[in-house]
Amino acid sequence: MNHQWLPDKPGEECGVFGIYAPGRDVARLTYYGLYALQHRGQESAGIAVADGKRLQLHKGMGLVPEVFHHRELSELQGHLAIGHVRYSTTGASSPINAQPLVFRYAGGMLGLAHNGNLTNITELRARLTATGSVFQSSTDSEVIVNLIARYGQTGLVDAVMKCMIDLKGAYSLVILTGDRLLAVRDPHAFRPLCLGILDRGGYVVASESCALDTVGARRLRDVAPGEIVIIDESGLTSLQGMLPRRRAHCIFEYIYFARADSLMDGFNVNRVRREMGRQLAREYPVEADLVIPVPDSGTAAARGYAEESGIPFEEGLMKNRYIGRTFIQPSQDLRDLGVRLKLNPIREVLAGKRVIMVDDSLVRGTTSSKLVAMLRDCGVKEVHLCLSSPPVVHSCYYGIDTSNEEELIAAQMPLDEVRRLINADGLHYLSIEGMLDIFGERRNDFCTACFTGDYPVPVPQPPKAGKFSLE
Amino acid sequence: MNHQWLPDKPGEECGVFGIYAPGRDVARLTYYGLYALQHRGQESAGIAVADGKRLQLHKGMGLVPEVFHHRELSELQGHLAIGHVRYSTTGASSPINAQPLVFRYAGGMLGLAHNGNLTNITELRARLTATGSVFQSSTDSEVIVNLIARYGQTGLVDAVMKCMIDLKGAYSLVILTGDRLLAVRDPHAFRPLCLGILDRGGYVVASESCALDTVGARRLRDVAPGEIVIIDESGLTSLQGMLPRRRAHCIFEYIYFARADSLMDGFNVNRVRREMGRQLAREYPVEADLVIPVPDSGTAAARGYAEESGIPFEEGLMKNRYIGRTFIQPSQDLRDLGVRLKLNPIREVLAGKRVIMVDDSLVRGTTSSKLVAMLRDCGVKEVHLCLSSPPVVHSCYYGIDTSNEEELIAAQMPLDEVRRLINADGLHYLSIEGMLDIFGERRNDFCTACFTGDYPVPVPQPPKAGKFSLE
Amino acid sequence: MNHQWLPDKPGEECGVFGIYAPGRDVARLTYYGLYALQHRGQESAGIAVADGKRLQLHKGMGLVPEVFHHRELSELQGHLAIGHVRYSTTGASSPINAQPLVFRYAGGMLGLAHNGNLTNITELRARLTATGSVFQSSTDSEVIVNLIARYGQTGLVDAVMKCMIDLKGAYSLVILTGDRLLAVRDPHAFRPLCLGILDRGGYVVASESCALDTVGARRLRDVAPGEIVIIDESGLTSLQGMLPRRRAHCIFEYIYFARADSLMDGFNVNRVRREMGRQLAREYPVEADLVIPVPDSGTAAARGYAEESGIPFEEGLMKNRYIGRTFIQPSQDLRDLGVRLKLNPIREVLAGKRVIMVDDSLVRGTTSSKLVAMLRDCGVKEVHLCLSSPPVVHSCYYGIDTSNEEELIAAQMPLDEVRRLINADGLHYLSIEGMLDIFGERRNDFCTACFTGDYPVPVPQPPKAGKFSLE
Amino acid sequence: MNHQWLPDKPGEECGVFGIYAPGRDVARLTYYGLYALQHRGQESAGIAVADGKRLQLHKGMGLVPEVFHHRELSELQGHLAIGHVRYSTTGASSPINAQPLVFRYAGGMLGLAHNGNLTNITELRARLTATGSVFQSSTDSEVIVNLIARYGQTGLVDAVMKCMIDLKGAYSLVILTGDRLLAVRDPHAFRPLCLGILDRGGYVVASESCALDTVGARRLRDVAPGEIVIIDESGLTSLQGMLPRRRAHCIFEYIYFARADSLMDGFNVNRVRREMGRQLAREYPVEADLVIPVPDSGTAAARGYAEESGIPFEEGLMKNRYIGRTFIQPSQDLRDLGVRLKLNPIREVLAGKRVIMVDDSLVRGTTSSKLVAMLRDCGVKEVHLCLSSPPVVHSCYYGIDTSNEEELIAAQMPLDEVRRLINADGLHYLSIEGMLDIFGERRNDFCTACFTGDYPVPVPQPPKAGKFSLE
Fold this sequence. Notes:
Four copies of one chain form a homotetramer.
Chain A: E1 11-12, E2 14-20, H1 26-36, E3 44-50, E4 55-61, H2 64-67, H3 70-75, E5 80-86, E6 101-105, E7 108-115, H4 121-130, H5 140-151, H6 156-166, E8 172-176, E9 181-185, E10 194-198, E11 203-206, H7 209-214, E12 217-222, E13 227-232, E14 235-240, E15 249-250, H8 252-257, E16 263-264, E17 267-268, H9 269-283, E18 290-293, H10 299-309, E19 317-319, E20 343-345, H11 347-350, E21 354-359, H12 366-377, E22 382-387, E23 400-401, H13 409-412, H14 415-422, E24 426-429, H15 432-437, E25 446-447, H16 449-452
Parallel strand pairs in A: 15-25, 18-21, 21-22, 22-24
Antiparallel strand pairs in A: 1-23, 2-5, 2-11, 3-4, 3-5, 6-7, 7-8, 8-9, 9-13, 10-11, 10-12, 13-14, 16-17, 19-20
C-alpha cells in the first residue's frame, strides 16, 4: 500500500531488518528486505553492515531505491547487517533522524535501529543530559544508544538487559556489532518482530514476515515478549532479557499497517482483515446492491463483507497507481478535483446502486466525505460507509502517528454527527468485541488503547506535544 | 497498473491528451490527464500549450511528475494544450523521440502528439526525403508533421485530410495551433480516443475516459473512425476526414492495456475483463480449491472466473507496490529470489490447495514458469494457469510492442509443450470465439490480428526489423 | 574565464569541435575538446559519434561535465565525432536548441554543429517552409540542415557548396556522416576554426587552438575563408567551396571571447591583449600609482598597460572562483553587497592610491559603476577606467549576443556622460586605429562592425527583434 | 583557488563563520560568507540559525550552492547563525562528518563548528566513552561537544573554559546558543579567526577577512590566542579563556591556503606571497628569459620573483577554469594528456626560452614532473622550478591534511634526486630563514613544524594512522 497519498490515515513509525549470513551479499539482501517493508516508512532508509571488525553505514532521505544504488550497495561489504525505513509525515523531516545509528562507545562500535515509541523518553533524556550526554536528534533511538553506552562497560548483552529495565513503552530493536546481531522486543511485544532462517545458512529478523519471504528466508517464529535473540558465529542464542508482561500487540498492524501477506504473532494479516469484514457484515447487515472497497486498505475487509452478506463485490473505485511523493497537488482553481486524481469511480458499475463502501478505519474523516460526494455524483443512490475497525478516540503513544485527540473525528462528536458530516446514509464501525472475537482465545493479547483508552503502559498526561524543536 | 516491472507483457506505445478551456489552467489539467494515462507510457512526457498566438513546449524523459514540477507548469500559460506520454522499453530510449512535437511550417506554428503505428512509414519517409525533408527522430509523428507541412499551403484542415489519405495504419492524433485543437482518429479506429466536455466550458480529448474523469470532464462519446474534431473559439466542429473503414479497435486494450475504469468504444474495460474470466470458466471448468489472480493484470478476470465457477477467490499473491524503475535487480548470487521480490505468495492461503491462477495473457512465458515454481514451493498441489485471452501468435504493427514472432512462446510450440515448459498442471487460453462473444453484435469491430493473423491493413512483409538506427 | 557571473559582457554563441581518429576514444577526446571550449558556451553541450555506419547522439542542458558522465561517453562508440557547446543567456533556454543536430535525409544520416549567425535566416526559412519544410527550433543550424537536404540528392559536398551560395553571414560548421568529417568556414571567415593533426594519426578541427592542445593535437593551420575540409579514410582533402571574400575575423574574439592561450588566424590571443594594453598606455598616459585589472578579462591588457607605463601592476581585485550558475543572488536586503560577492578589493593594496583599472570592454556599464564605488569605498583617491577596446556602439549580427543598441551605453550618450555615470575620474577607450595597428599589415582582415557600423555583409534593417517565439 | 583539481597540494580542514545581526537575513549572509570561504573546504557545507529560542540546521555534501538553495535559506529564520565548510579528500567522505553539529545537552540547545585538529583526541574520546559517551562521527568536533556537555551544568562559558584546559592542539570554534554567539581560538592561535562589525549593527567572525568583506563587515581585529568572544543582546564581551601561549600561526595559510585578499594576524596574504617570491629571487638568482607561475597558487610569488629579478613575467600556462569535481579523468588510452587538460602551455610564449616556473610548494611532486615534461615539449630550453616555501618534510597534526611522511617527496630523498625525478634543470626552495624574514619582528609567531619538525604542541608518536574506521 502506498500510504503517502492518503493523508487521512495514521502514520507508521518504522520497519527494521537484520541479517547474519556469512558468504552472502548481506547489504543487497537487506535492501530487498527493506523494499518489502517500504510500506512501513517512506521518509528515510539506511543500512549498516559489519564484516567482523568494521561497521559501515549508508543512509539518506527518500525511498529505498532513491537512497541506495549499485555503488552504495557494493561498497557495503560484510556478513551481517541491519536496516531501517522511517515513516513520512507531511511536516518537516530531517536527515539527522534517519536510522540506523552507528556509534562508537566504550565497548567498541555499535549499530542500532528501532521501531516503536518510548513513553518515558523525556525523563530518560533528562537523566542522561544531567550527567553529560548530548543529543543530536529527537529520536528515541539516540536515547537508547546513550543508555547502552552508560551500561556498556560490562558487556553488551548485560547493557541491553539493564536498558530494558529503564525503557518504558514499545520497542523492537535490531543491534549490530562487528560480529554479532541482536534482536530485542519489549516485554509487551507492542510492535512486531519475527525471526527466519536462510536455507544456505544464516538468520534474518524483520518487522514483518513478508520481508523474510522476500529474501528467501523461512519464518521460524516471532521474537517473544522481552526476548533478546543473539546471533553470531556460534549460532543463535535466546535470552529472556525481561520477564514478559501481558501481551499488547498493536492491533492496528492487522487493521491497516502490515502487509496482507505477513504472518504476525500467529495470525495472517489478510485473513484477519477478511474476518473483520465478515464480522462487520454480521453486526451491520445493510441492505444494498454492491459492496465496494476503498482501495487498497479496505479491499480485504470489503471482500469479507461481500462473502458474508452475499451482496456482490465490485471494484467501484479505481486507484491511480502512479501517484507518488512528487505529485503536484491541485491548485485553488482545481481544488474540486480533490480525491478524484487518486481514486476514480466507475460510473457504469455504480450508477443507480445502493452501495456499501468498506474502509479499514476513519481517522480525521476528510477523505471519506469527498469519496461519498464523488459516489453521489456518479448517481449512487445510497452510500453506507462501513469501517472494519472501531472508532479511534485516543492517541497512540507506542509508535503510531495518530493525530492528537482533537483531530480524531470520532473523539469529537457523536457517531451520527460524523455520519452527517461525511453525508453518508449509514456509518458503521466494527465493535471492539467483534474485532477481538476474531482472535479467539488470544483476544486479550492486543493493545486496543486507541479504541478503549486502556493503555498497557502508563502514558504522559499532557497530550503528545508538538514536534521536538531540534531541527 | 505498473507495467514496468513485468517485462513479460506487451508494451503500449503512447497516450494522448488535448484540452481547450479558456480561463482554466490548461497545463495543470493536462498534467493530471497525463497522470491518469501514465500506464500507457512511462518513458517520456510532454505538454505543449497555446495562448492564442504563441506555442510553448516542455518535455523530458521519465514519469509525468519527474518531468513536470511547479516551475515548468506555471510557465506554460495559455488556454489550449496537448500532452503525451510515451512507453518505456528495456532498450535505449532517447529524448529526441519525446512528444509532442512543436514546429513551424508555412502555416505557422503547430504541435502534434500521436498514438499508434503507421504501416507505410518507410515508404512515406522515403518519399519525403527524396524531395528534401529531414528527420531528426525515428518516430511516425515526425513523418506526419512533414506530410502536413507539404500539404499545408492551403489550410490546416485540408492538409490533415490529405495526410489521412497517405497514412496507412493506426493513428490517434491531437494537434494544436495557436488557437485551435484538433483530434483525429484513423478510419479503422485502431487506437482509442474519446471526447469530453467540461462543466465550466471547454472540451477535452484523451486516449481513455479515465483521463476525462480525472480532470472533471464528462465523457460525450468516442471520436469516430476517420473523424476530425476541431475545437476553437466558435465551439466544436466535426468533419469526416475519411470514410470510415471496418472498425478494428485493438482488443488488447480490453485485455491488458487500458485502465479498468475506462469506457472505450462502448464497453467498460473492467466489465469486459470480468466477462472474459466468466467465459474462461465456462470453457474450462477446472476442478480446484481456489482461484487466484496474478495481480494486477489478472484480477478482474480471476474474479469473473471465481464467480462463474463458484470456486473461492483469494489474493494468493501479494504485489510489492513500491517496485519502480530504479529498483536494483538481483545479482547472480540472489537470482533465485527472482519474481519473489515483486510477488509474494501467501503460504497460509495456498498450502495444500489446488489452485487456478488467472492472468490476462502469456507472451514470452518467462514470468509464468517462475510463478508456478513459487506456488509449488508453497505447497500448492496443483496449478492451473488460465489466461483470459487467446494465444498471441502474431506480431502487432499498429502500435503495440509485442515481441517478434520468434519470441512469442505460443507461436513457437504446441500448447502442451508450453504447459510442460512452465510446469503447470493445466494451461487454458480463452477461445477467440469466446472472447468475441462478449462483445455480442459488435464482435466484428475489433482487430484480432495478434491472435488470428488477420491484419485489417496490409503489413510489411519482413518481420518488424530491429530498432531504427537513429539514436 | 567564467562569463556567467558578469552579465555586463557580450555573450558568445558557440564552440564547435570535430575529430577523425580511428582507434581512439573519439567521444572522450571530444569531451575534453569541449571542456577547453567551455568558455564559448555554458548553456548546452552535445556530442555525435559515427562508427562507419551509425550516428549516435547525446546532448543536454548544462556544462559539459553536467551533460556527460562515464555512462554517456562509453555508449558513444566510433572513430569520428563532432561536438558543440552553446552559450548561456539570462533568459529562457531550451533543449530543442542544443546541438549537434543529427538527422536523416535523402543522402543518409548527417550530424551538424554550427558557430555563427546568418543574416538572411528569415528569408531562407520562409523559402523552405513555403515548399514544405518544418522547423522544430529557432536555430540557424536547422535551416542549414534543411538546405543541405534540399540539395542533397547529388552528393553531400555538392550540397554543401550549393548551401554556401545561399548562406549569408557567419558560419563555422562541422559536419559528420557515417564515415566522413567536414569542416566549413564562411568566405569572410568571421568566426574562428582551426585544424590540427594527431600524433598517432587522425585530424581535429576546433573553434580554438586551445582545444587542439588539450587533446594532444598539433595545430596545422586555420581553415581558410570559404574552405571545405573533408576528412575520411583516404585522408584530408581541401576544397574551395566558395571564393574567399575580404577577411572579416571577429575582433572581439581577441578582445574578450577567446581563451588567452589560443592562436587564431595568425595571432596569439594573449599577446594581442597585452599589446592592446600597451597601446592604451601610449594613447592615454594617465598619472597614477597602480594599474589593476578587472579579473580575468582585463588582466592581460592591464599587464601591458603597466609594462608600457612603468606604473606598478597589482591584483587589487580578488575574484571568487566558486561563483557559478547556481549562485543565489542577493535579496533586496543585501542588494548593497552587489558585485562584492564576486570581486573583493584588497584594501591594503588600494587605500590612498590613484588607480588605473583596466578592463577589456564596456557594454552596458552596470558593473563598472559598482566597481568604481567599491574602490572609492576602500579609500582609492582616483579611479581611471581604461578599456582595451573602442566603444561598442553597434549590434552584432554575426554571432555575438551584444545587446540592442538602446542598451549599449556608449551608443546612448557622450563619453563624458558615461564617465560621470560610472563616477570615474577618467574613462579611456582604445582607439580603433590603435587597436588595428597591433595587427600590422593584416589590419584590414577584421570585422569591426560593432565599433564602426561597417558591416561586411548586409544586415537586416530593423534592429534585432526579440526572441523568436518558438519555445 | 580551486584546490580540487590539483591533488598534489595539502588539503585544508575547514572554514568557519558566525554572525549576530538582529534584523538582517543572517542565513543568507552566512551563505555568502561561506561562499567566500569555499576555498577552505568543498566536501560539505552547513548553516545553523537561532532565533532567540530555537536552533535550526541544514547541512549536506557538496559546495555551498549545491547544499543551499532558496528554499533551504528561507526556512532558516533567526538573528544569529554559524556556518561551516569542510574540505574534500579523494577518499570516502560522509554526511555524518558535516558541520555544524547541533545538539541538546543539559544546558539546552547548542550549535558548534570547528576548524583545526586536536592532538589528544584519542585520549579525550577514550576518557569520555569510559564514562558513557557515544560518538557517531570521527570528528574532533563531536569530542568537543561532549566535553562541553560534561562541564555544562554550570553555564556555557565556564564549560568552554574548562574544555580549553583539556583540548590540546588547534581549534578555532564558533558556538551558537538560542541567543548567543561565541568565538574561541586556541592559546597558540594555530588556525585563523577574525572579528568584524556590521555598519547596520551586529558582529561577524570568520576564518578569513575576505568573508567579512564579502558580507559588508568591517574587520576589527583577529580573535586573540586563548580568547573567548561572546556576542549577544548586550553587545560584545571578551574573556581570556586561557592564558595565551607562544603564537604559532600556521604559516601554510600564507603560503597556500588563505585567499590572497585576506588580512590575517596582521599580514596581507597577497603581499606575503609576493615577498616570498622576491626573497626567492634574492636567494636563487637564476639566469633565465621568463618567469612563469603555476596558476593560481604560484602567481603572486612568480610576480615577486619577476619584479626582484627583472626577468619578464609571462602567463605561460593557461588554466581551464571549468575543471570541477565532476570532471571525468582521462582513461588509459588518454593518460598521456595528463595535466594538459587543466593547464595548457602557450607555445608562442615559451618556445626556445629558459624558464623559471614558480609554484608555492611541492608536496608529492607528481604534478610538477608532468608540468616540466609539458614545458619541454613546447620547446622550452631550460626549466627551473622555484618554490616559494621550504621543503615539506614533516606531517601536520594541527589541521592540514599533508600526506604521511612517506609520501612527502622532500622527506624521502635528497634535493638533487628530487630535481632529477621531476627532470628540472634547477630546483630551488625558499629557505626557512628567508621565509621568516618577511615577517620581521614577528618571525617567531608562526608554526613551521611541517618544515622543521618543531611542533609547538606535542604530537602523537606513531605517524598519523589511516582513516578512522567509523564510516
